[in-house]
Amino acid sequence: MLITIIELLVVLLALYLGSRYGSLALGAIAGLGLAILVFDHGLEPGTPPTNVIYIIVAAVTCAGILQASGGMDWLVQLTEKQLRKHPERITFYAPLSTFFLTVMVGTGHVMYTLMPIITDVAIKKGIRPERPCAIASVASMIAIVCSPVSAAVVAFSAISAMNDFNVSILQIVSVTLPACLVGVIIAAAWSSKRGLDLDKDPEFQARIADPEQHDLVYGNTMTMLDKTIDKKSKRAVFIFAGAILLIILLAIFHQILPAWDKVVDVNGAKDVLLPTGKTVSPASLASAGIVMAGVTEKVAVTIDMYLVIQIIFITAAALMIIFCGAKPKTAVADNVWQSGMVAVVAIYGIAWLANTFFHAHIQQVDEVVGTIIDNHAWTIAIIFFIFSVLINSQAAVIVSLLPVAYALDAPGWILLGALPCAYGYFFLPNYPTDIATVNMDRTGTTKIGKYVLNHSFMVPGLIVVVCSTAISYLLSYLFFG
Prior knowledge:
Strand order of the largest sheet: 1-4
Radius of gyration: 25 Å
Strand content: under 5%
Largest sheet: 2 strands, antiparallel
Structural class: mainly alpha
Helix content: 55-70%
Oligomer: single chain
Number of strands: 4
Order of helices and strands: HHHHHHHHHHHHEEEHEHHHHHHHHH
Shape: globular
């Protein structure tokens, strides 16, 4: 038992150091922990989540090419028009804007372009920017579990299928999207009343008494409306949207997917027809001492959906390069592709480390938490949340913990209900989107408090996660329970 505790501490220390250094260190330091477990403690290395990683690479490449084509600028421009048309509703429209942008492109990092505009609209209307900015940042991240092209959703579907809970991407989104959308709206309603208006805030008024600070706050106008969007950029958006729609349709009508006849070894998995005309199960024959090993059959094998997703995304990326003038070198230099590749490395290292540890100690884990999961399966949501605070990645949470949860016999519908809790990294304000939001609010109202945890994102984040999880559990129970 002592050795198990030491190995668990190795895992936790690797996660802590990785999150402290950030970026590529998440995966790299997890790899260091893996090396210690394998070479020093003699644990058998687990299996890295290659299928999930391949999907993420394909999706991130497609989104990066969309950004390089200028298509993302068009989406932001369309969003800005709506925000400026109704500035008095910025606290509600801003989070809805970042939420749906993330749902469409699969990454919350699209909010970097939109956040200065949200701040500008709020300032021009005299609204405290903290109100829309904090909830908009939270909304952009919780939406990851609602996007049909996000790594977290794809990973949940793929891993669930491997554990006999066949839930499609569309079915996952049909639960998480309405649940998280309601959670965002509730948090926005709370945010609309937080803090003082700018003209009544003594701290802000003292700040703008300095002419330089006054010019900084009111002298700049952040806008995308003056940028000309050409037809090629708009065409790229339609190609990207078409790829998403095609993936959803093929997930629904999977019977139209290509299939090939293959001879497979069923190993007695099928019932056997005896010469007498009676059909018996292989289990019955085995109980009589007859083992039907090596039984083969020619069957139609349909292409796996995870391969379909990869093919469609890389095809869409190619079409945007050829017909929309997207430059691959520009895509590689932009934040969407870079943040996606950082996520790939993080998932690669963290999931491999976690898989190695849990595979070696699944019996001990079952003894410690198995009874709790059996009697109170909903508590897996708390584990998701805590793990997310440590590693800053919903996809890594899913890839690392979902196989363990299934191994502990947690029901699939419970795990689907807990999916919003994979977003817990707002708890510590060290994630790039939160830091960027603080820096982009030039009024200083969006901030990290003196005691770290009393920051602008805490209450909106808790409201969103708690409400979204409660509704997600209800919907998942109604659909699958």
